[in-house]
Automatic annotation (TrEMBL):
The lineage of its organism: Bacteria, Bacillati, Bacillota, Clostridia, Lachnospirales. CDD domains: EAL. This is GGDEF domain-containing protein. SUPFAM superfamilies: EAL domain-like, Nucleotide cyclase. InterPro entries: Cyclic-di-GMP_PDE-like, EAL_dom, EAL_sf, GGDEF_dom, Nucleotide_cyclase, Rev_trsase/Diguanyl_cyclase. Keywords: Membrane, Transmembrane, Transmembrane helix. The chain crosses the membrane at residues 15-37, 297-316.
Length: 748
């Protein structure tokens, strides 16, 4: 089977790794370049924000200075003109100013006398003596006030004031001019940055920066909240001391601001222009955003490109590997693949493998007679027959009709047993006319005798060519194995009589359980050869040899005798027993003395039909008349006959209906594959078939709970398998019987 560690695509993994690492490097690199780039841009932005802030601020300062000085100049001119009319009553002087108000665009002009009485061009009469600026002005000061509410409370006003001198150099009046703050602020339209920024005029009093020249509808930032922002004011005033212009950054309402201040020409005032740091940054940033996006697009593009390269690489590597390692007809791995993965297995694993080379002798004829498509179909069917019958082994196509298989074995017989299974399947495919008649020859080499798969392959190829066209034999071992096999068989053959005499053959028992009750309902007698040195030889080592030379007939009878003897002894002890089934080889049909042998034994040990049953394996090699006779002998004496290995024969259905079997025993090779959809339904079908033919169904080789549950839920209840119990030596089995008797007794 194809397991991960045998992945031949290993080297491409390395390259994939390199691509992945390169991608990571690219990402890290591009990310840091990107960050560096972005931080450079940000730095530039800050510089450009500062520069533009400074420029706007400077413009504003000039403007404010100009407005102040031109207004003050104008008023000084008016005061000069007024000097000539100072003898007139205050009201009359004011009347003379009416024209000027209109011409200069003032809100009004006013004249305040030393008693603090002010008469305005709007004919108002106000008392202003209490205001500091009026007092200061009578001392000779001039200037303007911060924004303040008008006396009638209707408008915010900015008041410019100059002293009016008489010819004696005294100051009988103070001239005031008023702008509405609104008009003033439009004169000083010093908002900037898309209305985000603003300018204010403040005095230098270190922590009292609240003298706003203009009052707007706007939130005046920190500048009208002196108590709350005393710390920030302090920063400003500290800066004022150091330099007459500069930057200050501060936070207001959770937003960072950048401000530029510069000293005005009048008083000791400063104009501060401020903007929210982020907004400015973003405005100035529009280009950066574009650049950022552009860079991101580049990154995405390069990433996609890499991904495409990556996928293309995987795709083509896979294609390339498929080209090398896959066979175009079966669409499965080829011999090159086997060679590639073989070294990945441990020596221990490989030494248990046989390398089998097989080809179809008459493949050329199939191809020329039925066409290439039929030829391909044969290849596919051969491949499928193998994988279906031998799921734990592997088959690979080489070229043409040549296949290479690896078969796992413990004993050499396992290999031929498995190949027989496969060959039976091929025969049934031929019989069902799924494929035309073909003949397959197989050469077998045991990997443990070689040091490379190629040398094993070559030897197997030679072994195969020696039997090509031989219709009597379809497989052949290489010389080495041949010798080994022959020697082993010879020894087994030679030892038979001796072993029989020395009672080296013993019977082990494997219980059968009823899955519903968990109780033992039967057992199978299985022969073991216990050699003098104590080693236990399993039956598949020696039975094929004895089947070959006919000694199996005698061995079967010995097993039957030993089983009956044990039953007799147990019964004598009063132990209640379950029926025990005894295997009869297919060669028993050649035993002319079978009935006599049987009767001798059952008589001697007082055996009833409830005590023993017989298991017979159905094969196509059976001569049906002979087997019929054997079965009828058993039936005549009322013994149950079980069909062993049900499902592996050519036509289980026919056999089952033609002969009088009482029980069908589903073969382990089906049980092994419970869980595979196809096999699940085959097994269900087998159970239904048995039920319809009134044949009891038993399953052997149950190794898991899942298998047991599946069978039980589908109507098969009698189980034999390692999940319940392995075959156990006679002594152990007898104890099991005695114990279950005790339980039964105590239950009563
Ligand atoms: P079989 O008649 O099909 O017997 C069942 C075999 O499957 C036994 O192997 C048993 O140990 C094994 N088995 C049962 N349950 C499980 C399981 O859950 N997992 C696995 N892996 N194996 C399980 P054993 O005893 O080695 O016998 C092998 C074969 O030798 C038998 O197959 C039978 O064909 C033959 N055999 C054994 N004793 C005799 C005999 O006295 N006479 C003849 N003619 N053949 C015999
Ligand atoms: Ca059996
Ligand atoms: Ca069996």
């Amino acid at each position: 089977m194809f397991v991960n560690k045998n992945n031949p695509y290993g080297s491409s993994k390395k390259i994939l790794g390199i691509i992945a690492i390169l991608s990571i490097i690219f990402f890290v690199f591009s990310y840091s370049v990107y960050n560096l780039f972005i931080s450079k841009i940000e730095e530039n932005n800050i510089t450009s924000v500062k520069t533009s802030l400074e420029r706007i601020s400077t413009q504003n300062v000039e403007r404010v200075n100009e407005i102040f000085s031109s207004t003050i100049n104008k008023m000084n001119n008016i005061a000069d003109i007024a000097r000539d009319y100072l003898d007139m009553p205050q009201e009359d002087i004011v009347k003379g100013l009416y024209n000027i108000v209109e011409i200069e665009g003032f809100y009004n002009l006013g004249l305040t006398n030393r008693d603090g009485v002010c008469i305005t061009t709007l004919d108002e009469r106000l008392q202003l003596g209490q205001y500091d600026y009026i007092k200061e002005c009578f001392e000779g000061a001039y200037g303007f006030t911060e924004s303040q509410l008008s006396e009638d409370g209707r408008a915010n006003l900015n008041i410019f004031y100059v002293p009016v001198y008489n010819n004696e150099g005294e100051i009988p009046y103070v001239l005031t001019a008023t702008y509405t703050s609104k008009a003033m602020s439009s004169l000083l339209d010093i908002t900037s940055y898309e209305q985000q920024g603003n300018s204010v005029v403040v005095d230098s009093n270190s922590n009292m920066i609240n003298r706003t020249l203009v009052s707007t509808d706007k939130d005046l930032n920190i500048f009208d909240k002196p108590a709350q922002y005393a710390d920030t004011y302090k920063v400003f005033s500290e800066n004022f001391e150091k330099s007459d212009k500069g930057y200050v950054t501060y936070t207001y309402a959770n937003q960072k601001y950048i401000a530029y201040y510069s000293q005005l020409k009048y008083e000791n005032w400063y104009l501060i222009t401020y903007v929210p740091y982020n907004n400015v940054f973003n405005v100035a940033n529009n280009n950066t955003v574009l650049l950022k996006n552009a860079m991101n697009y580049v990154r995405i593009f390069v990433s996609c490109l890499m991904a495409v390269i990556f996928l293309a690489y995987i795709h083509y590597t896979k294609k390339f590997n498929d080209y090398i390692y896959k066979d175009s007809v079966t669409k499965k791995h080829n011999y090159t693949y086997l060679k590639r993965i073989f070294s990945n297995f441990s020596d221990e694993e490989n030494n248990k493998k046989a390398i089998c080379v097989m080809d179809i002798d008459n493949f050329k004829i199939v191809n020329t007679r039925f066409g290439k498509e039929a030829g391909d179909n044969v290849i596919i069917k051969v491949y499928k027959a193998f994988t279906e019958m031998l799921p734990n082994d592997s088959i690979y196509r080489d070229t043409g009709d040549l296949f290479v298989c690896t078969i796992n074995y413990d004993n050499i017989n396992d290999i031929t047993d498995k190949l027989n299974l496969f060959m039976d399947k091929i025969d049934s495919e031929i019989a069902l006319r799924n494929i035309p008649y073909i003949h397959i020859s197989v050469g077998i080499a045991l990997y443990k005798n070689y040091d490379s798969i190629d040398s094993a392959f070559n030897d197997a190829l030679i072994a195969k060519s020696k039997i090509k066209g031989n219709l009597k034999r379809f497989y052949n071992f290489t010389n080495k194995e041949e010798r080994e096999l022959i020697e082993e068989s010879k020894e087994i053959e030679a030892r038979f009589n001796d072993a029989l005499k020395k009672q080296e053959f013993e019977v082990w028992y494997q219980p059968k359980y009823d899955g519903r009750t968990g109780k033992i309902v039967g057992a199978e007698a299985l022969v073991r050869w216990k050699k003098e040195d104590g080693t236990i030889v399993p039956p598949n080592k020696f039975i094929p040899v004895y089947e070959n030379n006919g000694q199996i007939i005698e061995l079967d009878m010995e097993v039957l005798r030993l089983t009956c003897e044990n039953i007799y002894n147990l019964k004598k002890k009063g132990v209640k027993l379950v029926p025990i089934s005894v295997n009869l080889s297919r060669f028993q049909v050649e035993n002319g003395d079978f009935e006599r042998n049987l009767l001798d034994i059952i008589k001697k040990y007082d055996i009833t039909p409830q005590d023993i049953q017989f298991e017979l394996t159905e094969t196509k090699m059976f001569n049906s008349e002979k087997i019929m006779r054997l079965i009828s002998v058993l039936k005549k004496h009322n013994f149950e006959v079980h069909m062993d290995d049900f499902g592996t024969g050519v036509s289980g259905l026919q056999t089952l209906s033609n002969y009088e079997f009482d029980v069908a025993k589903i073969d382990k090779s089906f049980i092994d594959r419970i869980g595979e959809k196809k096999f699940d339904s085959i097994i269900k079908g087998m159970i239904v078939l048995c039920q319809n033919l009134d044949v009891q169904v038993v399953a052997e080789g149950i190794e898991t709970k899942e298998q047991s549950d599946f069978l039980e839920s589908n109507g098969c209840y009698v189980f034999q398998g390692y999940y319940y119990s392995k075959p156990v030596p006679e002594e152990e089995f007898n104890k099991l019987m005695e114990d279950s008797n005790n339980i039964d007794d105590s239950e009563k």
